[in-house]
Design goal:
alpha+beta; Nuclear Transport Factor 2, Chain: A; four-stranded antiparallel sheet; two-stranded antiparallel ribbon; 5 helices; 6 strands; about 30% strand
Length: about 210
């Protein structure tokens, strides 16, 4: 093979290789540019979605946007719901729900403080009356008295009404005032859906008069 032919073919190979490299670089640059455009577009979509998320206040039915002000409203709503659940499960029971409600209460309140409340009902024959006499203890939160959501732990004071039934008739009624500190934790379905937890909790009781017509 002639030397001129070899050189010609070598030059053709070099030019082809350079063109291939150039085309590869152009493709890589174009691909990188497209990825960047997709990333920017996706980021804008996510940001727009965050700005248009709608949350419904379970208490008032009000539509809440996901910004700081409305986040605080949402947190207040969740805390109120947590307080209501705590008051109910720690202080509501009958012969059929006693063990179940005690177990659920431990998902909402730290164990030592919950055990103090359980001990009080045991020592004062609350559990005994429910199991042996069929009494029904029913508690409902009625009002949040104080609430600070500036920072964790969230400090809260709320009032509940405990009614004790015998044969479907109210025989005793108490006001329960609860004080506690709440922190956020991992949600535990279905016992603690809000992911809130009382790290400290105590409650006091005040007897209420019974209307004879009830």
């Amino acid at each position: 093979m002639k030397k001129s032919t070899v050189l010609s073919r070598f030059n053709e190979y070099s030019l082809s290789k350079k063109a291939s490299t150039r085309n590869g670089l152009l493709f890589l640059a174009a691909f990188t540019f497209l990825v960047a455009l997709v990333f920017i577009y996706a980021t804008r979509i996510i940001q727009d979605a965050k700005n248009t998320i709608i949350v419904v206040d379970r208490g008032s039915g009000e539509l809440l946007k996901s910004n700081v002000t409305y986040y605080n409203k949402l947190m207040i709503s969740l805390i109120k719901n947590h307080c209501a659940n705590t008051a109910y499960y720690l202080n509501s029971f009958d012969r059929y729900t006693l063990d179940q409600n005690m177990a659920k209460g431990l998902f909402l309140v730290n164990r030592p403080d919950a055990q103090k409340i359980f001990k009080k009902y045991k020592d004062q024959r609350g559990y005994g009356d429910a199991l042996e006499l069929g009494y029904v203890y029913q508690t409902e939160m009625v009002e949040v008295l104080e609430l600070n959501t500036d920072k964790e732990p969230y400090k809260v004071r709320f009032k509940s009404i405990l009614q004790i039934y015998e044969d479907h008739k109210v025989i005793t009624r108490y006001t329960i005032v609860s004080d506690g500190e709440i922190r956020r934790s991992a949600a535990q379905w279905p016992e603690n859906q809000n992911g809130l937890y009382f790290t400290s909790y105590e409650q006091t009781y005040q007897p209420l008069k019974i209307d004879e017509n009830e």
